[in-house]
Amino acid sequence: MTDEDQIRRWEDEGGTHIEKERTMTETNVHTEHCCSIHGCKYGDENCPVVTKEQNQSYLCEACEEDGLTMEDVVETLLDIGATVVETAIEVGGQAAEVAGEAAEVAGEAAEVAGEVAGAIIGGLADVV
């Protein structure tokens, strides 16, 4: 990967931003001190460890206090990932069900609109 490949550029209301993309194995203050379970030691909501862009290098103090190992952290993250997938599937199914119900209601509304239009046209024909 070239240096150019590692540059990310984006624009928003704050202007144009350029940032070097992080790799999973690159270390920085976040990978060395933050935790994917317990959060960013510095309160950064865009922490690359918390957002899973990078792996943490060590157990955080809270993990150590809880007696966790890196294997426990990985297992917890896998469990969280599985839960997210299951929830997404469930929500997707619910959305499909709601969409089906909405289509049914829309069909009924179209039918009623057709009946109303027919009655109006029929009433006008009686007048003429």
Q: Strand order across the biggest sheet?
A: 1-2
What is the helix/strand order? EEHHH
Span of the ends, CA to CA: 79 Å
Largest sheet: 2 strands, antiparallel
How many helix segments? Answer: 3
Estimate the global geometry from the Cα principal axes. elongated
Taking pLDDT < 50 over at least 5 consecutive residues as the criterion, the unreliable ranges are 1-5
Mean pLDDT: 82
- What is the number of domains? 2
Structure described in brief:
53% of the residues lie in helices and 9% in strands.
What does this structure look like?
A hairpin with a 2-residue loop joins β1 and β2. The protein is built from 3 helices and 2 strands. The protein has helices at residues 29-33, 61-65, 70-127, and strands spanning 7-12, 15-20. A two-stranded antiparallel ribbon has the order 1-2. The longest helix has 58 residues, at 70-127. It has 128 residues and is mainly α.
Please name the defining characteristics of this protein.
single chain, 128 residues, mainly alpha, 2 domains, 2 strands, 53% helix, elongated, disordered N terminus
